[in-house]
Amino acid sequence: MFESRLAKQICLVFVTFSLLAGCASSVVIENQPLSDEVIDGGYSLKAVYGKRSDSGVSLVLAFSGGGARAAALAYGVMLELRETQVLHKGQQRQLLDDVKVISSVSGGSFTAAYYGLLGDQLFSRFQEDVLESGLETEISNRLLSLEHLLSNRSRGEVTAEVYAEYIFGENTFADLRTRNAPIILINASDLSSGARVSFVQDFFRLICSDLGTYPIAKAVAASAGVPVLFEPLVLENYDTCDVESDVTRLQQAAEKSEGTQLELAINSLSKLANEKEQHRYLHLVDGGITDNLGLRSIYEFVELHGGIEPFMESMGRTGDSRSVLISVDAAVDSSTNVGQAAAEPSLEQTINAVTDIQLHRYNASTLELMRGGFRRWHRELSASGHKVESYFVNVALNKYPDPELLEEFNRIPTTLNLTNQQSKDLINAGRLLLRTHPEFVRLLADLK
């Protein structure tokens, strides 16, 4: 979540002008109805995932939330994968080329979307364009300008405008399909149904909408849009296509997962597909609300296909012999100092403490769920006669080995501003944590 100057200034001005004006922000809806012209499934898992390199190694990355801190840590992991050379059929190749899927939320979505759209330009421009560009200052200046305060434009729309102007341009998800990139799963949360929303055609089919025309900048703004601080970005849930088969599939999956966390997620999706009058509009906010690690969308896509075997067959990926999941977690142990005094904690201390407790416990639950699923999937694949070696790599910032630098990381607020030194330290941390992780070391040894 965003702290410090931007949050405090926006909240103060928001309250003041709400009292004076009492006007509501205008709603801008840009997602278009699904048409017959969406070829080969549009920007879907099958259309993109199945067309990545076929080296026998499949890497899936998950980037957590955490503002620019998360974006920088994820960038460090990407840089290390680029610099890691492996041998395939007698030729050297970058391990980065074996990345098939990147799932992201909030701050991690900047890194994922940038790579999906601009490829290797990530390694020459990302630090300047995103990490050290002062995006938060630019957003703050625009939101606090008299022009904006006298308008009825929402803060979410202004933020998306800044992201388009400085980073993503007017590119849409159709532009991602023109590049040899991994499938990028940008995740947000819907306040209406509680559903986790992945910006991929597989999900957008449930709301009868064409993802190909939707701006990437808006998807990232939704994924990183802190509730209350920024108004939700709105999607229309169209009733212009036949979703009966999708509803049936969701019902069958819900019956198989009765009493589990997966059933709750499926029921949220079913509301959007089956109760369109009650959920005519989706109000999208920070993806970290429903999953701050970006892992649950991966888990749910596999399970909704009926398990790992039908999922891999559907994706056209039946020949992989090594499967690698790298979770990049930028959560820190921020001290609230509540226990150092008998006095009642301040409102800020209380909110920070509650947020940290909920975040760390939910992250632990997500990691446990994903580890269990990951092991089970590969046991099932190996039992079917196709041996697949699996590697689960958890790149966690709070496990950084240098206590002094770790304390510095703990003091970096969850904002979009980083100093040059903070940016460099976080990037190097991502590289080191990946390079020295036992599972990653085992992977490289096996590949050699």
What would a concise description of this structure say?
By secondary structure, the chain is an alpha/beta fold. The protein has helices spanning 4-21, 45-49, 67-83, 108-118, 122-131, 135-143, 146-149, 155-168, 173-176, 201-204, 216-223, 244-256, 261-274, 296-304, 308-315, 347-383, 403-410, 420-435, 438-447, and strands spanning 32-33, 57-63, 85-88, 91-94, 99-105, 183-190, 196-198, 209-210, 233-236, 281-285, 322-329, 389-396. The strands form 3 sheets. Strands 2, 5, 6, 7, 9, 10, 11 and 12 form an 8-stranded mixed β-sheet that branches. It has a two-stranded antiparallel ribbon with strand order 1-8. A two-stranded antiparallel sheet has the order 3-4.
Textual characterization of the structure:
- By secondary structure, this protein is an alpha/beta fold.
- It is built from 19 helices and 12 strands.
- The chain has helices at 4-21, 45-49, 67-83, 108-118, 122-131, 135-143, 146-149, 155-168, 173-176, 201-204, 216-223, 244-256, 261-274, 296-304, 308-315, 347-383, 403-410, 420-435, 438-447; strands at 32-33, 57-63, 85-88, 91-94, 99-105, 183-190, 196-198, 209-210, 233-236, 281-285, 322-329, 389-396.
- The strands form 3 sheets. Strands 2, 5, 6, 7, 9, 10, 11 and 12 form an 8-stranded mixed sheet that branches.
- Strand 6 and strand 7 (196-198) form a beta hairpin.
- It is globular, with a radius of gyration of 21 Å.
- The protein starts with a helix and ends with a helix.
